[in-house]
Amino acid sequence: ELGEYDPEIHVGNYMSEHKILLKQTEGIEEKAMELHQTQLKNFTAEQAEIHFLRLASQLDTYAVDPHPVK
To answer: Rounded to the nearest 5 degrees, what angle is found at the Cα of 54, between the Cα atoms of 9 and 65?
Structure first.
């Protein structure tokens, strides 16, 4: 969605324009920007998606569909 980090395009708190979490805080946005600028550097869109899916599949709640109960 953001593409390759470009300091001319991605200025200020550019992550606040994107809703990535239900309870998104400024601290989370700062960490996301740090990762975008460092660890995800030179990723193609396909590589970024595969990386995301690998990380997500390791979560305890991966593929869990919760149903609220009263």
So the answer is: 105
The residue ranges of the chain whose pLDDT is under 50 are none
Task: Encode pLDDT of 19-39 as tens digits.
Answer: 888 889 999 999 999 999 998
CA distance 8 to 33: 14
CA distance 26 to 23: 10
Residues spanned by the domain of 27? 14-57
Q: What's the total number of domains in the chain? A: 1
- How far apart are the C-alpha atoms of 22 and 6, rounded to whole Å? 26
